[in-house]
Amino acid sequence: MVVIKSIASRDVRTPTSLDKTGSDGMNLSPDYSAAFCIITTDSEYTGHGMTFTIGRGNELVCGAIDLLAPLVVGKPLDELTADWGKTWRYLTSDSQLRWIGPDKGVIHLALGALVNALWDLWAKTLGKPVWKVVADMTPEEVVKCLDFRYITDALTPEEAVALLTEARAGREDRLAEALRNEAVPAYTTSAGWLGYGEDKMRSLLKQTVAEGYRYFKLKVGTDLEEDRKRLTIAREVLGYDKGNTLMVDANQVWSVPEAIAHMQALAEFKPWFIEEPTSPDDILGHAAIRKGLAYTAHGPIAVATGEMCQNRIVFKQLLQAGAIDVLQIDACRVGGVNEVLTILLLAKKFNVPVVPHSGGIGLPEYTQHLSTIDYIVVSGRKSVLEYVDHLHEHFVHPSRVENGHYVTPLEAGYSVEMIPESMDHFTYPGEKGKSWWQTEEAKEVLSAPRVRPL
């Protein structure tokens, strides 16, 4: 029996604002960061989970992890995993912590880190990657992992079992594809950051085409003419009839009318979808944008969102309202693996493809498991998954892409355990002589303006 002895949080930040990696219309100078949750036990096994942020505020998530920790310290792992749905409800039921949510914000980000760390620990004790833990479950066992509170008007436990049972047809063939590294096609955002110059963007597009990618995403949402210039360069490299698919992402910068007008003006570049065209909380706004872009002069433009949708309830409403064509779960903004499974089943019920958000440190490591679960266990439909080729070298088991597909992870766990030296190097504020944040070079980042001048 494995007993949880302690939980520690770690504030890890990488200075990606120096080269504008991750920059977009809303987030000009992000520092890719992670609030880590590390579980120690009375055995050799440890659990590692994290939640992605972009710098300031990471310490708040770490503080929230510390507040949640007493709920599981001292408990046997078997007790927590015997009825995962009950455990997940238990972890969201501290009424004083729930008051600063509920099921959203900093407390929910911390929950995602803790829940994912528990899954990492559990998978390690079972000797399996997280995706295989779920793939080896019966439909009834998967459904037992879920909390159906607030969603039974859209999906009942009985419906979920039926959907999972239906998806078992062809499962062995899909599993074989995963073991051949053919289950999860990758798309790249690496050339698309707004802070990159035209030459760098063109060079990276050519490089990623040569590496076998066929799906490419660029950031938009600043100046219309600048967007047109960048998309013209993209289409010069990608073409229109070479089997390459283009997507664009506005990161919430527009109002509803602005989103419709701006994307109608960019329709000639034939993007598959516009991601985050407006506020992530505006369900009816997304529905209006979807309607406004269904018939452009150059064909329909799909609407995608999800990286900042906070829980299964918001996703339920997006789906019920017919507001999105593509659902983009985030592995840790929602409450970890359990809530992700719920959302995958909602997407299956409403026949909407899932394209997880992976633009951040540790996110491709997580989401490779989730897309594999979706394909093998839930939807049976092959989709695509974002791959951002940055910072993977800092993980014990980094995600990899070969021939345009994710290499299916086979190591036990959830793949986000960070190399200890890397964690020390990027801990904030960290120790002098160990942490980059205590160096002279760091002063440039620490003193940079927080927002555009008034």
Number of strands: 12
The share of residues in extended strands comes to 5-15%
| pLDDT < 50 stretches | none
Oligomer: single chain
Element order, helices and strands?
A: EEEHHHHHHHHHEHEHEHEHEHEHHEEEHH
- Cα gyration radius (Å): 21 Å
* Intertermini distance: 58 Å
The chain-level structural class is alpha/beta
The largest beta-sheet arranges its strands as: 5-6-7-8-9
Shape estimate: globular
**Residue share in helix:** 25-40%
Mean of the pLDDT scores?
95
- How many helical stretches? 18
Main sheet summary: 5 strands, parallel
Could you please describe the fold and organization of this structure?
The protein is an alpha/beta fold and 454 residues long. The longest helix has 22 residues, at 105-126. The chain is 39% helix and 12% strand. The mean pLDDT is 95. It has 18 helices and twelve strands. A hairpin with a 4-residue loop joins strand 2 and strand 3. Helix 1 crosses helix 5, helix 9 runs antiparallel to helix 16 (363-378) and helix 12 runs parallel beside helix 13 (283-292).
Layout of strands and helices, then pairs:
Elements: E1 4-13, E2 33-41, E3 46-53, H1 58-68, H2 77-81, H3 84-91, H4 95-98, H5 105-126, H6 130-135, H7 139-143, H8 157-166, H9 171-179, E4 186-188, H10 198-210, E5 215-219, H11 224-238, E6 245-249, H12 256-265, E7 273-275, H13 283-292, E8 302-305, H14 312-320, E9 326-327, H15 336-349, H16 363-378, E10 385-387, E11 401-402, E12 405-406, H17 420-426, H18 442-446
Helix pairs in contact: 1-5, 9-16, 10-11, 12-13, 14-15
